[in-house]
Design a protein that fits this description.
Structural class: alpha/beta
Distance between the termini: 20 Å
CATH architecture of the largest domain: 2-Layer Sandwich
CATH superfamily of the largest domain: ATPase, nucleotide binding domain
Oligomer: single chain
Order of helices and strands: EEEHEHEHEEEHHEEHHEHEHH
Helix content: 40-55%
Radius of gyration: 19 Å
Bound molecules: adenosine-5'-triphosphate, fe (ii) ion
Shape: globular
Largest sheet: 5 strands, mixed
């Protein structure tokens, strides 16, 4: 059985074909790169013009026929309304025209499930750090629960905003990483951990107001915010008594963040897992795969009930497939 999955919560529109045994046959995407930060309408228009060619190429690359598709999965939320709506419309119409069931997938849970598929992690604590999201998630009592999260903006959005103010192109995360390698002096920035939660806007404002060399500020921005993420991830490990850490989201491609988390994990005697880059960033394979798991456990939705959910919370989903 093949599932066609659609991702479309933010900048990226993706289409993927996944087999029920977990083989990813295609995983294509296009990313909208606006110059002035996230513009939901423009991103949605981008997705509208890219989604049909992506469907065709994805099916072709998977080397299957349209008729072989037995399930359609789409990212139902959380995310930007116009983007979600555009991609959901494509998913619904394909589900109707092929006459196959439809499944709405929570995007954050999909990051965790694709990590379980692509790595040896079985029951991990996930650190999900992307542009719009920063959460520490783990499975407990039938649900994926959020043990810690950002109280304001996602860490990636913070990095991208800081980069924009410093004339870096979008996305700024990788450029800040390069700049930080040249820095070595720790500039004092606020360290904002509140229990299991974190905050980034105050740190960004403080960083923007420093006169130090850019490389030292980038270095300090990474050291401070990554230490915060490492601390809350460690606290979630201790609290849940789990012994695996999984990374997900675009920001976890950062080597310095990976090194810090890995060191903490090994010091605790836990294991460290990070999927290949194409499965860290927003991708449709994670939606197709999570949809496959959900459907195998008896879940599907009618087109009438398939409204997008901009504020779709991770712990709203009853996990019937574990
Ligand atoms: P979401 O909808 O899940 O919030 P997103 O649209 O932000 O996702 P992702 O592909 O998960 O998309 O992540 C993109 C973010 O990752 C950007 O903010 C980018 O700056 C950041 N990023 C990418 N590479 C790096 C890196 N090497 N270091 C730090 N941040 C990075
Ligand atoms: Fe994401």
């Amino acid at each position: 059985m093949f599932t066609l999955g659609f991702e479309g919560t933010a900048h990226t529109v993706g289409v993927s074909v996944v087999h029920e045994d977990g083989e990813v046959l295609s995983n294509l995407f296009k990313t909208y790169k606006g110059t002035e930060g996230i513009h939901p309408r423009k991103a949605a228009n981008h997705h509208a013009s890219e989604v049909v060619p992506l469907i065709e190429r994805s099916i072709e690359e998977a080397d299957i026929e349209k008729e072989d598709i037995a399930l359609i999965a789409f990212s139902q939320g959380p995310g930007l309304g116009p983007c979600l709506r555009t991609v959901a419309t494509a998913a619904r119409s394909l589900s109707l025209s092929l006459d196959v069931p439809l499944v709405g997938v929570n995007h954050c849970i999909a990051h965790l499930e694709i990590g379980r598929l692509r790595t040896d992690a079985e029951n991990p604590v996930l650190l999900y750090a992307s542009g719009g999201n920063t959460q520490v998630i783990a499975f407990k009592k039938g649900r994926y629960r959020v043990f810690g999260e950002t109280l304001d903006i996602g860490i990636g959005n913070m990095l991208d905003k800081f980069g924009r103010e410093n004339d870096m192109s979008f996305p700024a995360g990788p450029l800040i990483e390069e700049e930080a390698k040249k820095g070595a002096r720790l500039v004092d920035l606020p360290y904002s951990v509140k229990g299991m939660d974190v905050e980034f806007s105050g740190i960004m404002t403080a960083a923007l107001n420093k006169d130090d060399p850019l490389e030292d500020i980038c270095y300090s921005l990474q050291e401070t915010t990554f230490a915060m993420l490492t601390e809350v991830t460690e606290r979630a490990l201790a609290h849940t008594r789990k012994d695996e850490v999984l990374l997900g989201g675009g920001v976890v491609q950062n080597r310095r963040l990976q090194d810090m988390i890995q060191k903490m994990t090994e010091e605790r005697g836990a294991t460290f897992h990070v999927p290949e880059p194409e499965f860290c960033v927003d991708n449709a394979a994670m939606i197709a795969w999570t949809g496959t798991l959900m459907h195998a456990s008896g879940i599907s939705i009618s087109v009438e009930d398939s409204n997008i959910r901009q504020k779709f919370r991770t712990d709203e989903v009853e996990v019937t497939w574990r």
